[in-house]
Target: E3 ubiquitin-protein ligase MYLIP
Amino acid sequence: MWLVSQPNSVILEVKVDPNSIGQQCLEKVCEKLEIGAEADYFGLRVCSGSGPGRWVNLRNHMDPHRIPSRRLDLRVKFWVPPHLLINEPTRHQFYLHAKLDLIEGRLVVADQEVARRIIAYIAQAETGDCDPDVPTHVYEECHKIGPQGEKPDDHIEKIIEYHCQIADMRASQAEYRLLKEISKLESFGEELFFCKPVTQSNNAYNLYSHLSYHRQVEEPRARDDQEIDGGATVGCLTSGQSGGGCGCRLSTCVGVGPHGIVVYRPACNGDQDIGVEKQSIPYTAIHRAQPQRRIFQLSYVTNEGHEATLYVKMATSGQAAALYRAVTEKHAFYCCETVRTDVTEQFIRDLKGTIASIFNDSSTLGRRYVFDIRRTCREVHDRARRDAHARGSHEPRPRRRSATGAGHEESRSRSRSGSHGCVARGGGAGGAGSESLACRVCMDAPMDTLFLPCRHVVCCDICAPRCERCPLCRGEIEKLMHIFLPVEYQRSPGVIIK
Model:
């Protein structure tokens, strides 16, 4: 029996065989939550009292001796914008994790107005429409969201004003708006690896706050060889500094995000010179990455075209290996068309396995896989679309006729189970045809907007302006065109269909 905790502290009991792998446990959890088609976005994390914990390798057997009390956390491992999420239960799990990160300070919002809108969306999703005469506990829960320091006197009033402006908004729509807001944050989808143990002063909240609200030092010029001893860097209070600085006590850390890695180095020197050095290295510039005991080694190409090597000394060899795993998996997920075999087949052996391999090189004894990624971002999205289409074609939804009887309008009810089909092959008056005319994002309004230059029609006029790329081909959207589609498929002089 394994206990899996959701971000909202709801615990699920999962029964798996003693010799099962982590993927089987995750699949059972996702099946209960109706997010099985998009399970690749999620992972299981081992609870840790002094830090964020570590990810369970889902391809290896689950060892109860390495996981205390058989307790695991279900968390989002690969963050994507909300318009790429097909099923509403998946968006709900993304929302729960985002809300937890915002409240606990792992996602920092530097703009006060954006923070107020986010709090209003949380209040609308949790409590419904605003009642100014009845104070809500959500406002107090979200006190960490927004800039540090003393809040303005009219802070709560401004939140209530935003909350009243979104009256009658459904909870699912408020969750979508919140995910859209946080997807614009610079730290969206970034996983931090601190060189020193995570403490009350050395954590993500203090780092992002330090970066957002203090002066940021210009990005240092890359040298051919850089060695960063994370254990020797402790923010403002390093040995030899006479000034107290801001007392941040931050260590050097490496952030791994959707676009590359970022090295954060505290650069505070006294009370007046406060800042953080930030060095960004995109995935396209990385030549090679590998762990060597406690040192994480990264070879890359600088902006000037020179080859450089970065050495980061972590607190333990396990942290260096976890950083190497995160860089490899996120690069494969966000940047590759498919996961290569040299990633999926990479493994290590324990002592027993090493001895057994001397006599039989193909022995699986003691083999532990290094990575557990199975699909890329595009493959997960396409798989979820096909699954939704397959389920939608077998589950026709009720529809209603207009007064003239000339057209059909899809029912406004929205199922939280995510059983929405993708674009059906052919229209008609059947359930699948009516479903095929609904906007692929909100599933409420009819599709009436053409993306140019790709000429795909998948959204309504409300959702289309939110899309930066076409949800089908991921091509850049240069222009939107309002069109009129008939109820039944037929060639129209106003639309060119190829």
Observations:
- Residues 470 and 477 are 6 Å apart (CA to CA).
- The two ends are 54 Å apart (CA to CA).
- Residues 231-244, 397-432, 488-498 have pLDDT under 50 and may be disordered.
